[in-house]
Amino acid sequence: MNCYLGVDIGSISTKGVIIDDNNNIICSLYLWTEGNPVNAVKKLVEQLKNKIPDGYLVRGIGTTGSARRLIGLMLDANVVKNEITAHAVGTLSIHPEVRTILEIGGQDSKIILVDKGIVIDYAMNTLCAAGTGAFLSSQAKRLNIPIEEFGEIALKSTNPTKIAARCTVFAESDLVHKSQMGYSKEDIVAGLCKSIVLNYLNNVGKGKKIKGPIVFQGGVSKNKGVIKYFKEILNADIIVDENGHLMGAIGIAILARQKRLEKTYSLEMAEIDFKTLGIECNKCPNNCELLKIYKNNQLIETIGSMCGRE
User: Fold this and answer.
1) Mean pLDDT over residues 39-62, rounded?
2) CA 296 from chain center: how many Å?
């Protein structure tokens, strides 16, 4: 029996799924990247390997996310694609009628518009972490609230406090000010959740025609407070899939299945010695910052050259 590995490597978390020929999830895993995508993927693959039932052979590997090219080289992936494509493919496999995909991850967010199963428009916010999972997590620590309880606390509020969440620095200043004025913790948390939705729609979703069915995914989709305010502000139903945080990994696994090679992949990470070396090239005025990638002590790729001399 064949199976296919999809890996979504983000700045905050690393997700992996293994699917069969019918796109059914055999096993999945969610880990923190901890600033080291290579080590995170080694852990991920080793643990997934132990979850695969006997009799399955890995026939394809796909990578997506911010470190997709690096990890694609490490795993010898047969498909390396951007997050927009991966999230769209994954979502359409479960919700084929979807028209709008809202995604808020650890340090970026995106919106994908779909018409008849085809991506027709998209936008991303990668310049500022305001309104993302990292922003929420930092505010939860400031308020001494477990991030897992953030959404439930927000639902208890009847009067959300207005928080200026367009910028992380201003939001933190506003949050401290509102706390000192005596606003309740529930109203401040609800205000943060609502401000994230407004920030997302005014920036990432600006100028986009949001049509239903709408699917909300990414780590922040687990926050019930954010879901509530998306529903209220858009005046629409919001679909939140139980595997929404894995949708990029699911999508890239499906693409790996569709473009599989006639080979079997080994998931033995102990056999891979993978290293990177950053240097500055002085062979021309560009002074490119290069990243040399070595696999089992052999140079397999150089990233960053503008003139092609390296």
Assistant:
1) 92
2) 29
Contact (CB, 8 A) for 119 and 251: no
Which candidate, 60, 61, 25, 21, places its Cα nearest to that of 41? 61
Task: Give the separation between CA 299 and CA 247, rounded to whole angstroms.
Answer: 33
**Tokens in use for 131?**
């309104």
What b/e sequence results for 144-172 when a residue is b if at least 16 CB atoms lie within 10 Å of its CB, and e otherwise?
ebebeebbebbeebeebbebbbebbeebb
Q: How many CA atoms lie within 13 A of 60 on its CB side?
A: 28
Query: What does the radius of gyration of the chain's CA atoms come to, in whole angstroms?
Result: 21
CA distance 218 to 83: 12
Cα distance between residue 175 and residue 162, in whole Å:
9
pTM of the predicted protein model: 0.84
Averaged over 129-144, what is the pLDDT? 74
Residue predicted with more confidence, 262 or 61 = 61
| % the chain with pLDDT above 70 | 95
How far is it, in rounded angstroms, from Cα 66 to Cα 244? 18
C-alpha to C-alpha distances, 130 to 63, 65, 164, 193, 263, nearest whole angstrom: 26, 19, 10, 12, 43
Q: What H or E segment, with its residue span, contains residue 256?
A: helix 247-258
Distances from the Cα of 76 to the Cαs of 79, 253, 261, 267, 293, in angstroms? 9, 14, 11, 11, 13
| Packed helices 83-94 and 247-258: angle between N→C axes, nearest 10 degrees | 90
DSSP string, 93-115: HH-TT--EEEEE-SS-EEEEEEE
Summarised one tens digit per residue, pLDDT across range 120-131 is 999 987 666 666
- Kindly compute the dihedral angle of the four CA atoms of residues 261, 267, 271, 274, in this order, to the nearest 10 degrees: 80
- pLDDT one-digit tens code per residue, 223-235: 888 999 999 999 9
